[in-house]
Amino acid sequence: MVARPSRRTFLRGAAAGLATLPAVTSAVAGGTLLGGCGGDEVEPVEDFSTTPGRIPPGVSGDAELLGGALAAEYRQVAAYLSGLPLLEAQALADAECFLAHERAHVARLRELIGGLGGPAVGPRPSYDFGLPGTSADVLRTLERVEQETIAVYLQIVPRLTDPLLRATAASIAVVEAEHQAVVRQRLGRQPLPTAFVTGGR
């Protein structure tokens, strides 16, 4: 039986940048990153996207790219907040933990964008997630929103010009992939049908 790498080692490697994303997607699809926040089997997700770092001045275009990621993170925060009342037990605990991660991502992206001279853009007044009536409805919505956010990061990471920004965006993508894997597990599905899917299920 082959021992799995520790989450700490794996995610620190993933934070090195886009070059690590294929390994990350493979691990997620294989289930090595599965787990809730503070569950019995694994430790909580470690969010390296909040690590302080140098903000290089005048990085052309990067603030706009990060603004797209920030918009996706705002949407995720809204999705988790709207879904909490219908969740319970471990699914509720997972969602509360993941919501904390998304809020940390928002704070970090706002810091990075501000450091690049970008505007302090806020969330939209409202988001349409339909009218979920059950816990499963909420989880399906969260799975879809996580998937769409991962797609955003896959688009922006190779276009960022600064290594620090690429590393930060890649580390956030890893966290989002783990969120999606856990949500799919709560729905009784395989962690991910393909590595970092970007289209429909």
Tell me what the structure shows.
The protein has 201 residues and is mostly helical. It contains six helices and no strands. It has helices at residues 7-14, 21-30, 62-83, 89-115, 135-156, 163-186. α3 (62-83) runs antiparallel to α5 (135-156) and α5 (135-156) runs antiparallel to α6. It is globular and about 40 Å long.
Question: Topology of this protein?
Answer:
Layout: H1 7-14, H2 21-30, H3 62-83, H4 89-115, H5 135-156, H6 163-186
Organism: Conexibacter stalactiti
InterPro entries: Ferritin-like, Ferritin-like_SF, TAT_signal
Signal peptide: 1-29
Total of helices: 6
Helix-strand pattern: HHHHHH
Structural class: mainly alpha
Estimate the global geometry from the Cα principal axes.
globular
What's a quick, concise take on this entry?
This protein has 201 residues and is mostly helical. Helices cover 56% and strands 0% of the residues.
List keywords for this structure.
globular, TAT_signal, Ferritin-like domain-containing protein, Ferritin-like_SF, disordered N terminus, 201 residues, single chain, mainly alpha, Ferritin-like
